[in-house]
């Protein structure tokens, strides 16, 4: 069975989940973004993207629908072998949040706090 692996800062963490959510705060607009993903074999597939607002180059696409306070849509290029996340050392930027198996944690709680970049990919 495939699981999710996170690699960064010389550490690899395995999360026995085939579905997860990535969440972050837009650094300029301070508006939350979220993406739901699935691990399917050797691929990561984005199921849905959500944003609470628009502005500063973050407008939702025309097919997005407002539901429960979020604009929601399914991205066109939804399948990838890996996702690379960049992290900022700036204190006011915040960190990525990964939610899986009913628990949400900042990447700095899973990998070294200064790990950058962080690679997400399916693994055995």
From TrEMBL:
A family per Pfam: DUF1850
Protein name per the record: DUF1850 domain-containing protein
Lineage of the species this protein comes from: Bacteria, Pseudomonadati, Pseudomonadota, Alphaproteobacteria, Rhodospirillales
